[in-house]
Amino acid sequence: MRFLISLCASAFLCAAQTPPPAATQASENGRVVFRIYCAPCHGIHAQGGRGPDLTRGTYAAGDTDADLHRTIVSGVTGTEMPGFPDFSQNIVGDLVAYIRSAAQREPPQIKGSFKDGEALFWAKGGCGACHKIGSKGGTLGPDLTRAGRQRSYAYLLESVVHPDADISPGFETITVVTRDGKKIVGVHRGYDNFNALLVDQAGKFYSFDKNEVTSAKQEYRSLMPGTYAKLFSPAELDDVLAYLMTLKGVQ
Ligand code: HEC
Ligand code: HEC
Q: Residue 213: which CATH number?
């Protein structure tokens, strides 16, 4: 470690090396900042979690240092990726250096066939009943049009085999009991002081006046069936995951 830093102090040596050195002072600083601010979503080694794997070396938001800079400062509008406008240029530079150093690992191989996965998604899995891809599919679950861009492989795999493990924000299960004793289990689609909007497992919408509701309970379990690890063979699961990883959003 110390050896590398002193080598890099003579900048020419560093610049001439391909691939670049695994760790520089900048990437080390970046690693520390990353652990605090980014690891909760991108994982402790930048290999992804709820946010995408950043070690693949190629980025949907753009591959140049300037693209990474912009993404970190401004975030990605309309996604969970926040901006960090208060970070100094130096800190952002350190983060970019860290991401570059983390990206020198072999990218993980995706085993399955995405074509077979696509067929499984719409037919055997019945996933389209609850998930939209592009303009096709249901709305009970999150839109998966950008799943491969937004999430890591590990997160998507866990979402399919253990839906209860990490409930996607805004998709918690809610059980409403009405004054006349009806019980509706669904995902809420809006909640204010007067109304509750709910969509149930069959995709049916309910709108309640709060006065008609005797109880509304939010639960941290998923309405997604927890049976896919049994329904699919391991090879089929690989295929479905391969398909999800190709979903990068409509142009
Ligand atoms: C709350 C979760 C969260 C936090 C915290 C977070 N990110 Fe992200 N990040 C995401 C998500 C989700 C995306 C994918 C956005 C999309 O759908 O394009 C993303 C995308 C990115 C991308 C672009 C990836 C690509 O392929 O286009 C970079 C680079 C990035 N984040 C870096 C960082 C850094 C550096 C930090 C810390 C300073 C950070 N992120 C903190 C969730 C997060
Ligand atoms: C009965 C409706 C339903 C079906 C069928 C269903 N899901 Fe889901 N899915 C949900 C709901 C609701 C959530 C959000 C709660 C959670 O995180 O589990 C979800 C979450 C997910 C997520 C996490 C999305 C994110 O961005 O956080 C993925 C990935 C996913 N489902 C994939 C699938 C796949 C693949 C299939 C078919 C093999 C499938 N789902 C079948 C309802 C469903």
A: 2.30.30.100
46: left (phi over 0), alpha (psi -120 to 50) or beta: left
Q: 32, 33, 41: which to mutate for ligand 1, most atoms within 8 A of CB? A: 41
Q: Based on the domain organization, do 186 and 158 belong to the same domain?
A: no
Per-residue pLDDT tens for 39-75? 999 999 998 999 999 998 889 889 999 999 999 999 9
Enter the pTM of the model: 0.83
Residue 126 sits in the same domain as residue 207: no
Q: Is the CB of 68 under 6 A from ligand 1?
A: yes
Considering only CA atoms, which residue is closest to atom 17 of ligand 2? Answer: 167
The alpha carbon of 175 and the centre of ligand 2 are apart by a number of angstroms equal to 18
Q: How many distinct structural domains can be found in the chain?
A: 3
Residues 128 and 242 reside in one and the same domain: yes
The verdict on 41 and 125 lying in the same domain is no
Domain range for 51 is 2-102
Ligand 2 atom 13 nearest Cα: 141
Residues 27 and 137 in one domain: no
67-119 per-position pLDDT tens digit: 999 999 999 998 999 999 999 999 999 999 999 999 877 766 789 999 999 99
